[in-house]
Amino acid sequence: MKIGVNILALLLLIVSLVAGRMYWNHQASEQSALRPTKIQDSSDIEGQDVSWKQYAQNLPKSVIEKIEQAEKAKKPIKLVIVGSAPKEKVDKTWGALLKENLKSTYGEGLITTQVYEYTNMTTLEFVKNEAYKQILNEKPDVLLFEPFLLNDNGLVGINHTLENINVIMSRLKEYNSELVTILQPSAPVYKAGNYPNDVKALEGFSKENGYEYLDHWNAWPDYRSKDILKFLGKTPGQPNADGEKLWANYLETYFTNSSSEL
């Protein structure tokens, strides 16, 4: 008799547990129906291509609009880089490093890059020799221009330098009024005298004329400090390999919202 009572009690316990589980499963099902299903964001999807806009966050609106047009038209914008050629041997200049970074970041379907580096060029020679016609032939959408500021220093004079830049830009805009121009100074010089004033004048000129201006000097150690010598070669104003990388690193941050390791 006692065994029968125990068996009956055990059966009642099992029935109670099963019924309780069924009740809570039903409750959970009803609550689940009230909650919205989370739609997976595109950024959460494994293998999803990252939008180029993530890399373009530091770029001006004028450049972003050009990239948007390039994406729609399936025709890349052209960036032309113009600057001074190195006076000492380096593995890669800042221009070459930036070109590689842009290709790996955006791909040539959005941006193609052409680099022109001129040895011992001044703005006066650039105008007299009509070297700017090489740039015209490239038909750039965006121009990154280091206008030979250091080569001009002590030879051309900053006022004439700015006049020459004006002439160069006028010629280029005759063929493309929508050209976006980004100006930047040459490399810093250790304990320079008047040269930093030329750099400030270029910055003021850029703002007055509506050009973008990149002050990469902010990325270098103070030009009055010996720390900067780690990034400069024997020729004044000539970056060594580390200096080229430092300069390129600054520009990569601007153009791609990221940078390479120094």
Q: State the secondary-structure class.
A: alpha/beta
Quote the average pLDDT: 85
Spatial strand sequence of the major β-sheet: 2-1-3-4-5
Number of strands: 5
- Unreliable segments (pLDDT under 50, ≥5 consecutive)? 26-49
Short description:
The chain has helices at residues 2-34, 61-73, 94-106, 123-128, 132-138, 149-152, 158-175, 195-208, 241-256, and strands at 77-84, 111-118, 142-145, 180-183, 212-213.
Architecture overview:
The protein is of the alpha/beta class and 262 residues long. 47% of the residues lie in helices and 10% in strands. It has helices at 2-34, 61-73, 94-106, 123-128, 132-138, 149-152, 158-175, 195-208, 241-256, and strands at 77-84, 111-118, 142-145, 180-183, 212-213. A five-stranded parallel β-sheet has the order 2-1-3-4-5, sandwiched between helices. Strand 1 (77-84), helix 3 and strand 2 form a beta-alpha-beta unit.
Write the layout of secondary structure elements.
Layout lengths: L1 H33 L26 H13 L3 E8 L9 H13 L4 E8 L4 H6 L3 H7 L3 E4 L3 H4 L5 H18 L4 E4 L11 H14 L3 E2 L27 H16 L6
Parallel strand pairs: 1-2, 1-3, 3-4, 4-5
Helix pairs in contact: 3-9, 5-7
Tags for this entry?
47% helix; 5 strands; five-stranded parallel β-sheet; alpha/beta; 2 domains; globular; 262 residues; Rossmann fold
